[in-house]
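Onboarding guide, step 5: your first structure request.
Type a short instruction followed by the sequence, for example:

Predict the 3D structure of this protein.
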Amino acid sequence: MEIHPKALELLEKTVNNGGKISSNEVVGMSHGDIVRPGKWLEENGLATVTEKRIKKYYLTEKGEEAFEKGFPEEILLKKLEKGSKKIQDIKKEIDAFNIALGQSKRNKWIKIISEEGSKKLEITKKGSKKIKDGFRENKALRNIKEDEIVEKKFLKKLMDRGLIESEEKVEHIIEITKKGKKFYEEKDTTEEKIGDLKNQHLKDGEWKKRGLREYDVRIVPDAKRPGKKQPYRQYLDIVRQKFTSMGFKEAKTPYVETEFWNFDALFQAQDHPAREIHDKFELRDPEYGDLEQDEIVEKVKEMHERGGEIDSKGWNYEWSKKQASKLMLRSQTTATTIRYLARNIGCPAKIFAIDRNFRYDEIDKTHFIEFYQAEGIVKAENLSLKHLFGYLEVFGKEIAGAEKIRFRPNYFPFTEPSVELDAYHPEIGWIELGGAGLFRPEVRNPLGVEEPVIAWGMGIDRIAMFKLGKDDIRELVFPQNIEELKKTRAVRLR
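The system replies with structure tokens like these:
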């Protein structure tokens, strides 16, 4: 029986280690040099190979910070033990304030009170008890750091918050058989036969002296897997292609946006609930950006305060340019399409955007701090709700793959009339896909747009989840199963 040099080397190391060796103990051989020769030894009865999978947890950068300084909610509660504090004041004292607030509100450790015209945070009895009892999560982080056992419920909780990550390592145990031991003792010590035939072997006739090593053509070689986009990225490209085939032009703007384009230009009042601290991510440095288009800015100001030049009352409050110039991570792709609408794009015009948005949320199977939206606007003469229904039907049936769709009346600050689009999934039932409507005159007028504009925004993540058979948004956006990704077919776009 001929044996490959790598298999012989592995066999020799196993013998010298007392007849049994772990892949972690093998020195001077790569993982591939162990697995493939080990498989050959096992197939020929010279050794047995068992696979052992070990899951290892370790702290992320956020986890290390929580371990050193304490959890954000723990810091918040300790500060509130001394008495209630104004939100605007305590927000400056805690780095991850949004997380601290969200966790504390969800667990009813704090309550928001109004006092002297400002909002304050106050610790509850439940919050005081939590401080007294201590945060068991701290102990869990310590146990992970010291490689000790941690309860599963804490592992999941810390994983969901991005404080820990896991890594699965595979260990192979090679154990020599009686046949393998005998083979090793009686192995042929003559010069090794040539496996990789080179030009020099032919020139000097070395191949005649040593002979050529036989190859087992029955062995299935490792699959060659070309690089390709992960499934969700491929799906987004398909949706993009669908929009462009319908005559739409794609819009792109930066992730960092001013509140002006994210809210104000959409006729969303500066005291609207959607601007509360738990919804958006604000920038600390720089905190403010430039509002370049002075004429549009002034018209938006007039619209908010008094209703501008049209038959509207506006919001009837004092609009703040400083507030509008605050920088944030874009929370809706409508900020992108409204920017393009302000560029005098002509008429008729079709614009779409498929891009990431960011909102604070507790991470779990269906919620994430970033998400994709598919946004679209159509500007043309004599557009009506009927035209909007036509586009939404195409979207629901051809892009979402729904058999049935339905429309429900709804409210959005920047469209009137407004509708909600639902799609029917045979296993899940009716699923909400997104909202749509005609831009209000209060949105169009400051931008100098006289023609009607239909608009919609869809949660493309949700659509992709049931299209791709996923039930966890984290596995959709950041898939971890390498083997599953290898098997995914690459989509060829026409």
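Each response can be followed by summary notes, for example: The chain has a mean pLDDT of 84.
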